[in-house]
Write a structure and sequence with these properties.
The chain is mostly helical and 131 residues long. It has helices at residues 11-23, 41-48, 61-67, 71-78, 84-96, and strands spanning 34-35, 38-39. It has a two-stranded antiparallel ribbon. The chain starts with 10 loop residues before the first helix and ends in a 35-residue tail after the last helix.
């Protein structure tokens, strides 16, 4: 019987992508994988891993595998509404198992995107906000 395991979260490449966003915010566009000279978080990971082939609407399956992000975890990192604070908190969570400070990112939002009063960034309350 063949037993395979999924790779762990690639903290090194993730940190490179986040550091690049901090240093060059004008090259970050979370809404598009690759758009001209701007890239989303996963687009930057794609570049740093050497998998970017010039296709704008495409992230290499090798990048997804190398980052160790699947299903919900991948969707969280590619969400177009992610702020840099949310990406930093997700990085910390996947690196250490702890999401931000007291379970909140530096924007004060929990992993589902709600503040301590149960409202999201648009001011709408969530049924599950404080569950």
């Amino acid at each position: 019987m063949l037993i395979t395991t999924l790779p762990l979260f690639n903290e090194t490449i993730s940190r490179l992508a986040l550091d690049h966003i901090h240093a060059h915010p004008e090259e970050w566009d979370q809404e598009n994988y690759h758009c001209g000279s701007a890239h989303c978080y996963m687009g930057l990971c794609d570049i740093f891993l050497g998998n970017y082939k010039g296709w704008e609407a495409y992230i290499s399956p090798n990048t997804v595998h190398s980052m160790g992000l699947y299903g919900k975890d991948y969707q969280e990192f590619t969400d177009s509404s992610n702020t840099l604070a949310k990406l930093e908190a997700l990085h910390a969570f996947h690196s250490t198992g702890v999401y931000g400070v007291d379970g909140r990112d530096t924007d004060g939002l929990d992993r589902r995107g709600f503040d301590v009063d149960g409202f999201n960034q648009q001011g709408f309350g969530g049924f599950y906000a404080n569950v």
